[in-house]
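Fig. S4 source data, part A: sequence.
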Amino acid sequence: MRTHRVYCKSVSEPNERFEIDESQSHHLIKALRLKEGDLIEVFDGEGRFATCKIIEKSKKSIEAKRIGELKYNTPPKRLLVTIIPVIKKNNFNFMIQKLAEIGASKFIVYKPDYVDQSVAKKDITRMINKSLEILINVSKQCGNNFLPEVLESNSLEEAITMTDNTSEIYSFDTEATEYFNQEGLGENSSITIITGPESGFSDKELKSIKMHNIKERYLGQNILRAETAPIYVSSLIKNHFGKIL
């Protein structure tokens, strides 16, 4: 029988008994209909996880006890970071979900100059906070014990400055002249990709890309949707890494 996975940071705290977060408790109670005595696997989003037992259940909350050894996964040496634009909510959520399933480890979300007017006045911070629930669900499903990090930036320029200096950075645009070839990727380095909104990069954003000496690549004649382009590229890169999560 499958052991259900639950996200709760408290699993790695010293106390063996802890209360599962309300939203996670609600899923265990209402959707999975688990009961006292059932076993679950609880992970803290930072690589630690353990087998736990449900010891007390109410209508809204669950208390669990760690009965197995607290284990730890080593973080992957090669990371995939995505610098992605804010787009329409449903498309944004789809993009986040699929990138997490592929194995993206960090998202830097920026507000593009050519932002879609349907989201221009939206609370972007709220959109990003909502996406955390999606990332938790993906991590539960995929068996990933590291919760992807999500950072917010006000512009592409700011997003670029938030990247790790050791990462190879590629941007993808229909105006680029050199095709992307995964064989050209480094053997051990992490990779950061930059993709734009439906209307493409502005002149100011293209200038920022060139100023930071970022490698510009062309994906082909088919113009991909804003949510499709990073998914496509990420699949190629994770395949190059030798593991799609």
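Fig. S4 source data, part B ends here. The mean pLDDT is 90.
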